[in-house]
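Subject: complex prediction, re-run

Hi both,

The earlier run crashed halfway through, so I resubmitted it with identical inputs.
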Amino acid sequence: MNQQLQLLVAIQDLEQMIRDTEDETRAREFTEMGFTLNGLDNLKKSLIELETQLDPRHRNYYRKLTQKFGHAVVPVIGNLCMGCFANIPSSFVSVTHENKVLHCENCGRILYWP
Amino acid sequence: MTLTEVLKHTSPALFLSELQATDKQSALEEIVGGLIAGTPITNRDTILQMLQSREQLGSTAVGPGIAFPHGRTLAVRQLTILIARAARGIPFDSIDGAPTHLFFVLIAPPHDSGNQYIRSLAVLTDKLQSAELREKLMAAPDYDGFCKTLQEA
Ligand SMILES: [Zn+2]
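This time it finished cleanly. Structure:
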């Protein structure tokens, strides 16, 4: 898997964890189950560290997509982009193991095959 | 959500009867190794990184001898639950400082329809407050015995 794509996925996962922790309702659900959520600063530091490893080109595109759609990286399931449900051509699927970051031709989101 | 519904997200292949790890980092690695071996999931590094981040937020070893590592990641398509045991116990930064023997690991996709993951976590954390149940679970001979014990409690 492309190392930049790996980073993009990790960044998106981490941003979601940060959002969940900052969301009062969600955070309360966790604390009521007995979990402590004291390390938000650690997560933010890790996020900055990950972002510095990103190629600026990918970073800017990721930011743009996140602002537009909420999620920049979307899974491809059953040959469909789970962002816009456009069909991902099989020619695309055959190159998924190439060392590239691929985009949906319809919506532009970054594609990930889980 | 019932316990039976929660247990639909696990399987005998996701039951690690006896972890070999002796510290937190290697326990997480062994757990993720079990997930990869027991499912079609492939992205080991992403899941490990997510679980490590979650531990940075605060240890998930919240009960006596029990931990619930959890989180959401693009690396999985559906809620997946792995169960692991460690008879000797593994240091896991628990709140009471005691080693952890039982692990319920919940990994969910980012789009978690119906909050399945939060609800499963709530069912499990509630159920496993019983010390008697935790002891019985440690003694269960196999996956089927484990699930049966959990459902009978
Ligand atoms: Zn699309």
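The first strand of chain A starts at residue 73 and ends at 77.

- K.
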